[in-house]
Amino acid sequence: MAAWLQAYARSALRVSALFDATFAGMATASTYAISRQDLAGTTVVVSRAWNTDTLAVELALSEPLVEGIAYVLTASGVTGSAVAVHQAVAVQVIGPDVDDADDPEAEAFGDDIDWLGAQLGPDGDAPRLRGLECLRRDLVARALTRRGELFHRPTVGAGLTMRVNGPNTDAELAELSAALKREWADDDRVRGVAVQSTASTSGAVTADAQVRTIALEDPIQVVVRR
Prior knowledge:
Elements: E1 2-11, E2 14-19, E3 32-36, E4 43-44, E5 46-51, E6 56-61, E7 70-75, E8 78-79, E9 82-85, H1 104-109, E10 111-113, E11 128-130, H2 132-144, H3 170-185, E12 190-199, E13 205-213, E14 220-225
């Protein structure tokens, strides 16, 4: 019979668990029970469970854990129990403290962490993007993501990287262009997309797009190359 090794709250709605052995039903939500340690009978329903490794499982919760409260986890077929505590993580804003009201471009196009950045800032943290560059990076991220890669948004992604070194016939490149138009048009900041996808003899794939935004009269260019 498997026993608990570790459990921790990744966020208010997600718990990760590690066991010393696999067991039947470890990817079945109804296998698990989560209850507050301080209030007997107060439970949180596990809405979904899935394996991230042969000994690890992720649990998606139906309601958020209360910050700082210990929750006891039990599972059918697992010896003992484990305790997880959700602690909110403070997000540090990198760069000058600028209110979006003083930055119309950021108000229109966003303010976010540069998840695709090639290097960290001088303080060791990921830099932030504001305004139009924030939109460009978001569009690039959707182009490179393949459908099913994001658990919380399984239908998002054009899968451009899956075309690298592929046959890339005219029909396949047209299909990629259509997928990119669909993905980018789904962004509230976008009102129109024209995109041309090409492939080189070495297997590289390039999408060159003119994107019309809600806030600018002229389109912006977005190029994704892999």
